[in-house]
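hiii so my PI (J.) wants the whole complex modelled not just the main chain, which honestly fair. so below is everything: two entries, each one labled with what it is. i double checked the lines twice but i was tired so who knows lol
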Amino acid sequence: MTEIALKNKPVHDENYWMTVLLYFASFLVGLGIISLVAANWQQIPYTLKMGGALGLMALNSLAIAWTIKTDKPILKQVLCVVYAFLIMAVLGLIGQIFQLRADPAKACLAWSLMSWPLFLIAPRLLWLWIPLFFFGLHYMPPAVMSSIRSEIFHTWESGETADWYLALSTIAVYLLILAYEFYVNFAKQPKNTATNPLRFYCGVILWGLCSRAAEYALNSQPLSIGCLREIIVPCVLVGGIVLALNKMHQRRSFMPLFLGAVIVEYLYTLTCQTLSIGSTYKYFFTSHSVETELPLMFIISISVYAHCNQMKRLFKLSGISLLIWFAWTFSDNMFDLVPSLIVCGFAAFWAYKAHNKRWFNVAVIAAVLRILGEYSDVNNLTYFGIYLICSGLLVIVTILLLMKYGKKLWEKNDEE
Amino acid sequence: MKNKILITLLFLPIIGLAGTMMYYEKMTHFDRVEIAVEGYDPKDFFSGYYMNLQLNWAKTDCTQFADSICPQDEFAHHYNFYINAAQSAKLSKSVNAGNVKLVFSYAEKHSPLIVDLLVDGKSYIDFVKEN
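here's the output for the full assembly
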């Protein structure tokens, strides 16, 4: 246990939320890189594009190597997140240059395979896997929905022939998860000494992606070598990750959450089927599509589970996910810039006078983000990519300045 | 020693991606075949701008294949063709109205790879420049 404790020594100090924002900023930079790639600049020859992308990856690798040698965990984490995004961006670039068919499930799996070394290097996996978390939210529920609806429920309703290979493969994936859960629960291990439970949850999302891959493989190349490649490789990969992490860390079971999510998705699908009019579904929230509603339910189920189990960090994460969901789905500018800045300025002043360092930092960062938000334009991918990268870099610089000079400011405040 | 292994592992994705690129680069040198298409122009955040094109075998010249038989099973029903934002508006009109073909690099037992888009017999890049 001592060894485990040493391996998992906290990478955060008293500036915890600043560090979290630093990760968020690196997330913005990564998203900016993807947007720039998606903008598809045809003036640049593809050899230069690929050379540049790989060169950027090599530079990033060297920077991570430097952080490993000099023991800088926070910077290492930020660079690992950017590296994970770079891998995804280069995969997208290959797809764009060679005009490959868009298959997000295959891209996610390739990304999982290639970002495998980061599992061993990144101090914190949670932030590394946030992109996967969102991909999982986006693709797992529809995958579960389509497999259950089309192949089982829909078959009962319409009497059409089902693709039983797909249905059985999906069920097999869930049975494997169930078997693994039983193994963990009945093995002679203490259950409630979780150190990194989210690692397992990320594994579960990967399992969900497997079913998506299975759908592709079984629809396009029935019982061929493609099935083996698409199902067995990710299963072995994910199984390896889950088992290895479980060996390293005792963890809490996530089976109730997983089953809850599947049930919610199933009930939702059932409702959609019942309310269907012709080929059009009637949703609970008519302004959004099923792809945005299911993640909302999924996040809420995570939030409830985390609250019931007193998992504070997971609860906070689900809160952040909810905020992102709202930001994603509501495009209207809810607050004017000047009143927002006045509120931020007031909050910063109050926090300074009240000797509340955390709220002071939050107010400053909120002001920076609010100013940046004023200049976003998602309709032009090139502009949006540059905007995201600049925003991320500006936030990083602001945080580093706050970390460096904040101490002096607070010392002065204490003297007063 | 452990650090050296970790640093070495960091370069594996770069090698993997470079290998993938070389593989696809090699695949672009097979025989060229032209297949008629029809489609529309959606936009996806992670993919940028692309046209989702459906193959139209009825308008395709099958004599370019062995035994003059169109190998429909070897092709997907639809393909995405990535373009940039500036070109998308001009091309979408042409795709909906005109004579459009996808050029594939094709060999038996290999997935066909798109190498160009022809609009009225011209490469789409030239077509956009002229219009």
